[in-house]
Amino acid sequence: MNKTKMVPLNKIRDNPWRDRVRNPIDANRVEAIAVSIGKTKYWMGTYGREMPDGTVQLAFGHHRFEAAKEQGLKEIPIIIEDFTDGEMLVWMAQENVRGELPVVIEAVSAVVSALGENKVALESLDPSTNKSIVRYAPSFIPGKAPGPTEGPRPYTVDSVARFLGYIKRSTNKARDSVVAAVGILEQAEKAKIEVDEKKAASVERSFSKMSVRDATKALSEVKRRELFDTAKQGERSKEVAKYNAKQLALQEEIKARAAKEKAAHDELIRKQTAAKLEEDTKAIKLLAQKIREQTAAAKLKALADVDSMKAIEAKLKAAKEKAVAAFKEDAYAPVRRDVERLLFKMNSVSTGSFCEDIKSISKLPLTVKDRQRVWEAAQALGEWYLGWVSAQVSTTVLSGKKELKEMKSREVANRRKAEAAAQAIEEVARKERVAAKAVAAKAAKAAKETK
Fold it and tell me: For 3-84, which CATH class?
């Protein structure tokens, strides 16, 4: 049973699952609510739970709480309920269903953290669930085994979404924002393991600034690259293992043959000794000849084995060098993911508001002068960006005839494009001048006829 209580602001605490770093307070929302409070006073509808120390944790309404402080209120009415940790989490998530990635990331992270601490329970997974999509709290990496003290707490993107209520009603599956949020948290966790927490926070911020659609595309590209790198590393490992196996097999073969040759040699010596005892000169000579032939053959085989071993060692060395190179590439993976995100943003600039403005204004009846001004401004902006990026990301000077030839070709092509654009603008201006002269001549003729 709930009750309404006037609670002093200094006794109010955030929802335990609220993360103001990951999902900061929106100053614009606080200001709008503060203005509303100033006009209509603080309205009912803020829920919370009372703690043993007398403080009250908000279930939701953090922006209203900040607005109340802005208005200088000393206390506000809160509806007190006996919320569980899970209910506090769900109420916070439902109040913030706006689709922004920071909000969804906050909610998804809170659910997985709570599941890892055994503070909430999610639906049991079907035994037939594909193992490749199962994760174990508190990790976001698919298939990563839980630690010995954590216990098996499996979940999927869909089970988290259903707990939060962030689902598509038609399919009962996770919304795209939840899929993107889990993917972003997975990349952040990998960055933390490979580099540190600062890098993880940077990766999360980079993705969370995107729209859900762009973040999904960028994550897909990063995942594709990871799969490619993993496959390549696996191929190198298999190659090293193959030559290791060949080397061991040859060593075993040499060892077995040496033992066999030694036994045969010992047998001939025994027979020779026996022949000497019998004073059989002919047999002694024959056995001595066999011993010499066997020794020579063994020497030739040993030389051949040395050559074979050298060949295998050379291949093994090359395979190990490839594996080391692949390992270095894999160590470069966090940097490559940052580059992939940057290139995705740069390649997706056509979806930005700037380009939409250009498309919109291009449909208007611009004068030649304004067309020229827009074109010149775009050219100046492009040159400024190129100069700024060049100053930040230095590049190696190209060398060699082929590189120089390609660079000159690009310069010529760019110059021709610029000349073509200028000619096109001049042609439009010429046509407009001709049209203007025609209109003027027609008007003069009409005026003359009127007189």
Answer: alpha beta
